[in-house]
Design goal:
- The chain is an alpha+beta fold.
- The chain has two domains: 76 residues, 434 Repressor (Amino-terminal Domain) (Orthogonal Bundle); 103 residues, Jelly Rolls.
- The radius of gyration is 21 Å and the shape is elongated.
- The longest helix is centred in the N-terminal third of the chain and has 27 residues.
- Strands 1-2-3-10-5-8 form a six-stranded antiparallel beta sheet, with no helix packed on it. Strands 4-9-6-7 form a four-stranded antiparallel beta sheet, with no helix packed on it.
- The termini are far apart.
């Protein structure tokens, strides 16, 4: 490659990276229901600069990227990864799927959602033995959880209230406070659980 071609290639690469960065920041900001002013206040980056970054009108410094990543609860690496070349279809095997186990060992959560969205959207396949209990601490303020029962019977306790759901039924509840899921009855339970972090606060 000729020396004079290198600056052009570097400039094109920087522009592509900046464009991807702007899209990522805007997507995360909207997912968290943050206005430009709110993100500016939380990050210490001027509102006008954030707007320019989202519109791909400026190349932010590393310090600016770091401030925005901290405000949006996401790593710098996550910001800088381009997704344009990723395949349209991804397949995960059972062995590649992370599993979380409840304290009593009777409830297993397979993380079947996209790991790149874990900061604002989490999706699990839940398998429970009779009597299994998942006691969870509060998530971020405004977070919402949706439990859709496929098999068995589940009970959810949150905010002093208790509700039961059977196969074909769903429960949606605020999870920005302690919440407990129990598999009740004599048969194993199966459900999907979707957690939307920093969702609009439910009244």
């Amino acid at each position: 490659m000729q020396e004079k071609e290198k600056p052009r290639e570097m400039e094109a690469g920087a522009a592509a990276l900046s464009g991807q960065l702007g899209k990522t920041i805007q997507r995360l900001r909207k997912a968290y229901n943050l206005s430009l002013s709110e993100l500016a206040e939380q990050s210490g980056v001027a509102k006008s600069i954030i707007s320019q970054i989202e519109r791909n009108e400026t190349n932010p410094t590393l310090a600016t990227i770091w401030r925005l990543s901290q405000a949006l609860d996401v790593s710098i690496e996550r910001f800088l990864v381009s997704s344009d070349e990723e395949p349209f279809i991804e397949k995960s095997s059972r062995g590649d799927t992370p599993i979380l186990v409840s304290d009593d060992g009777k409830l297993r959560l397979a993380i079947i959602g996209w790991l790149k969205t874990v900061e604002w959207l989490q999706w699990y396949d839940l398998q429970a033995e009779p009597g299994g209990v998942l006691d969870s601490d509060a998530h971020q303020r405004g977070s919402v959880e949706n439990l859709s029962v496929i098999k068995g019977t589940f009970e959810v306790e949150v905010g002093g209230g208790v509700e039961t759901a059977r196969a074909g039924e769903s429960l949606r509840y605020r999870c920005d406070r302690q919440h407990i899921i129990r598999c009740i009855g004599d048969e194993p339970g199966h459900a999907t659980m979707v957690v939307i972090l920093k969702a609009a606060v439910m009244e």
